[in-house]
């Protein structure tokens, strides 16, 4: 009996140690995977694009929103975006300036034609809806990936493709998610599906992004995103068209004193 | 009246016609269940670069029907107890973005069927803009707003106030300006020349928007240096969450000193040339904004005025896209006090509730309180956007304090409680 125990104890300890090491490795691997995703989707330098959102209600009724976007990469940080609202008419002419930071909450300025001056938004809470859609401010862009803790939880074959499944937790205390499952395609290192879980750990939203290669196939950028809120039955379909990498955006237009001059 | 109706119908049809061209083909929602997991590896769109047109023009704007009913007995005899207006504000923009050129045109028209003294037209904006790297030049009629306060601002001096609009809306007239700016990464400097001084145009004594205790003789008004352009400069600096602006203005004060004509029992506006130095600060931490404005004004005497406040945003309350903004500001302006203007020493408090979702609804409660007498003026406004292009508003403005003596600067305002209705169409 004692002999058996003597043999078992080290075995158990060894197994536990191996388990701990594999978890440690999995976190390192998750970090590596995210690094790969970010590398895949950055390096565009700058572009202009037309963003269209179709907001589909549970009863099938739908609404259109159009935003002209100008995005400029920030080598030491992340990216700066000017969004010019085109439709619907009641928000036409409104403009938003966003500084997506790699390591701290984003900065935002809003220009409303009625106010006729930019207003700096004091809001660390990015859980609110973007423009009435099912996309929250905290879901926008890829800088969010830098502000989450990622764990590689499993590898899975889903709809005929092989994925790494990451369980990611946003660092912000204001987030509306307990965690997010990100399905990263093993072949492309792009997210093929993102599942958002609410604070009660119930499935909240499912996002299916689609990417395409640009700039002589050196970079992937989103062309479509289907964000379905499974709790209220509403879906927001976003498409990005007319990517233009030749459009020159002077850095001064990305200053709060001047972004409202963009059209 | 029938002519107004005809005009109204014409204005209504115009935006509807302009609308017919938009609405892109809707995306199909049925593909949601079967996402295309294989990313389409099509080659880069070579045509994309050409899609950004060289010259772009765009029309937008709004047209509104506004009405108000003043339910208290008036201060002046024969004053109207209502107004009913048609307000149009179209906007046209022509851009040659890659050349850094832009033309902005924004006229403003108000036609009032009841209170004719409110009927007026103005050019809010008509200017050309040229931008090259960090340099920018704007020439023409512009609307420039300085300052960050939610309530009345001390530093905001370039544009004259539009007295024929509701004073709680802080509307301004267009101002001819030539400005040159250098906009850097975190700082900017802008120099202005403002030719053409625009004196205040007041509504008639029979209008309920008139809040002076005596009629104003604008035909007797004097302007110290009428033909001398005003000069101004503003420097802004941003350091992380801290914003700072320093400005100086030299020219005709937009607010006149009111001289009392004892013989005719009238007020005569006198516009004097002043120097005004302004300082604005804003500091953001989390959801809290702390801001302040200071002005040092030389107008015979030297006046130091200040305005300081806090703003806090409760965002996405309980996950229902309800934003609540609370603000409190305190303003003290000895110049206004010396010249018998209302709200020279006041608190401005506001609560704004915005419900996001598809069609934004907003409820704004503003309270302007005179500190000396603790007399509050309440303004409540509910707004609802609907059917993509429409906005309905219901408002109530009321003096809610005890009766005031005739010498109080708010003595007229206390009689002008009103219910307002508005219907706005955007295009």
From TrEMBL, chain A:
Residues 1-20 form the signal peptide. It comes from the Bacteria. Gene3D superfamilies: Lipoprotein localisation LolA/LolB/LppX (2.50.20.10). Residues 79-255 form the Uncharacterized protein TP-0789 domain. Keywords: Lipoprotein, Signal. InterPro entries: TP_0789-like. This is Outer membrane lipoprotein-sorting protein. It comes from Hymenobacter rubripertinctus.
């Amino acid at each position: 009996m004692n002999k058996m125990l003597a043999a078992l104890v080290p075995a158990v300890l060894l197994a536990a140690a191996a388990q701990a090491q594999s978890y440690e490795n999995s976190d390192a691997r998750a970090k590596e995977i995210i690094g790969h995703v970010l590398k895949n989707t950055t390096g565009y330098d700058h572009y202009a694009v037309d963003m269209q959102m179709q907001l589909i209600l549970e009863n099938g009724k739908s609404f259109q929103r159009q935003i002209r976007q100008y995005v400029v990469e920030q080598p030491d940080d992340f990216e700066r975006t000017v969004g010019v609202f085109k439709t619907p008419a009641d928000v036409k002419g409104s403009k938003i300036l966003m500084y997506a930071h790699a390591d701290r909450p984003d900065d935002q300025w809003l220009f409303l034609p009625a106010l006729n001056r930019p207003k700096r938004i004091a809001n660390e809470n990015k859980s609110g809806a973007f423009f009435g859609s099912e996309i929250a401010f905290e879901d926008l862009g890829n800088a969010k990936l830098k502000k989450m803790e990622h764990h590689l939880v499993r590898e899975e074959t889903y709809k005929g493709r092989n994925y790494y499944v990451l369980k990611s937790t946003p660092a912000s205390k204001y987030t509306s998610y307990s965690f997010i499952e990100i399905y990263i395609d093993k072949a492309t290192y792009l997210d093929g599906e993102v599942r958002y879980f609410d604070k009660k750990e119930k499935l909240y939203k499912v996002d299916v992004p689609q990417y395409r290669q640009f700039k002589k196939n050196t970079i992937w950028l989103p062309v479509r995103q289907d964000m379905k809120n499974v709790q209220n039955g509403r879906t927001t379909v976003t498409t990005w068209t007319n990517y233009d990498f030749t459009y020159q955006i002077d850095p001064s237009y990305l200053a709060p004193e001047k972004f409202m001059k963009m059209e | 009246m029938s002519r107004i109706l005809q005009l109204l119908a014409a204005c209504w049809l115009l935006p509807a016609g302009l609308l017919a061209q938009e609405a892109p083909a809707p995306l199909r929602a049925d593909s949601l269940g079967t996402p295309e997991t294989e990313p389409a590896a099509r080659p880069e769109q070579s045509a994309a670069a050409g899609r950004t047109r060289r010259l772009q023009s765009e029309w937008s704007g709004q047209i509104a029907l506004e009405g108000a009913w003043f339910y208290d007995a008036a201060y002046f005899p024969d004053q109207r107890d209502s107004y009913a207006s048609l307000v149009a504000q179209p906007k046209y923009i022509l851009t040659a973005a890659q050349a850094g050129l832009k033309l902005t045109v924004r006229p403003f028209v108000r036609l009032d069927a009841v209170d004719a003294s409110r009927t007026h037209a103005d050019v809010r904006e008509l200017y050309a803009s040229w931008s090259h790297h960090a340099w920018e030049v704007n020439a023409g009629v512009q609307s420039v707003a300085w300052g960050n306060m939610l309530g009345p601002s001390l530093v905001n001096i370039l544009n004259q106030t539009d007295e024929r609009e509701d004073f709680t809306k802080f509307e301004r007239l267009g101002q001819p300006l030539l400005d040159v700016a250098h906009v850097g990464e975190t700082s900017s400097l802008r120099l202005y020349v403002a030719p053409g001084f625009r004196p205040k145009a007041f509504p008639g004594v029979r209008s309920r928007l008139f809040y002076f205790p005596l009629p104003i003789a604008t035909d007797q008004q004097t302007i110290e240096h009428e033909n001398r352009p005003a000069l101004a400069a503003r420097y802004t600096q941003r350091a992380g969450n801290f914003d700072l602006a320093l400005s100086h203005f030299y020219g005709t004060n937009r607010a006149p000193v009111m001289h009392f004509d004892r013989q005719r029992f009238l007020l005569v506006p006198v516009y004097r040339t002043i120097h005004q130095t302004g300082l604005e600060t804003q500091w953001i931490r989390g959801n809290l904004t702390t801001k302040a404005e200071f002005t040092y004004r030389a107008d015979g005497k030297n006046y130091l005025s200040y305005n300081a406040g806090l703003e806090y945003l409760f965002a996405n309350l309980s996950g229902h896209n309800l934003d609540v903004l609370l603000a409190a500001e305190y303003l003290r302006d000895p110049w206004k006090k010396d010249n018998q203007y209302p709200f020279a020493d006041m608190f401005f408090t506001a609560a704004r509730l915005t419900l996001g979702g598809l069609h934004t609804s907003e409820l704004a409660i503003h309270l302007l309180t005179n500190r000396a007498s603790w007399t509050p003026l309440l303004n409540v406004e509910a707004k609802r956007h609907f059917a993509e292009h429409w906005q309905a508003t219901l408002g109530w403005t009321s003096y809610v304090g005890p009766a005031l003596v005739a010498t109080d600067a708010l003595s007229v305002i206390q009689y002008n409680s009103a219910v307002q209705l508005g219907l706005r169409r955007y295009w």
